[in-house]
Amino acid sequence: MRDQFLDSQVATNLIALGDPVLYEVHEMSRPEVAGELVQGISIVHPGRVGAEYFMTKGHFHTVLATGELYMCIQGQGMMVMETPDGDWAVEALRPGRVLYVPPGWAHRSVNTGASLDLVTVFAYPGNAGHDYGTIDRQGFRKIVVDRGGAPEVVDNPRWSAPKPGG
Ligand code: PA5
Ligand code: NI
Predict the structure, then answer these.
(1) Among 45, 62, 135, 143, which residue has the least CB neighbours within 10 Å?
(2) pLDDT, tens digit (0-9, with 9 covering 90-100), for 49-74
(3) What share of the chain is helix, strand, coil (3-state, %, to 5)?
(4) All residues with CB under 5 Å from ion ligand 2
(5) Which atom of ligand 1 is nearest to the CA of 107?
């Protein structure tokens, strides 16, 4: 995760100081075929790397034409989303909110709370797969940072725009 954060020096220091767990995923794996639903729970712990909140790595689905359903059951956060064309959206996560990530949208959850875990339940098609490489290369267009105690969505200065045609 170190290179996912804007301030990779602060991330490096945090790793040297004990390498905290940023998030956990517990899932009921199912056969990786269309028709199945993989279900599970994602727990993003509270904390920051510099101004940037703890978050998941984030990914596209390998089979782009697969969506995902999330429901937040605890905490406060944001779902940062992006298409291969660079369109973006950020939606609030709060207890009881159901969030649909449509096919084609990369997704990353961010815990903007001060002390609670951000807990979401998710379900996605068994054949979706996870493409982490694209986000590794280009990052997300938007990042969520703390500004004076409140979360703010800002441009990621390290984002590299997707190349036309992939
Ligand atoms: O399938 C999902 O989108 C979730 O289960 C995520 O995998 C989970 O929140 C962890 O994020 P990531 O897979 O990007 O590390
Ligand atoms: Ni997913």
Answers:
(1) 62
(2) 999 999 999 999 999 999 999 999 99
(3) 10, 45, 45
(4) 68
(5) 3
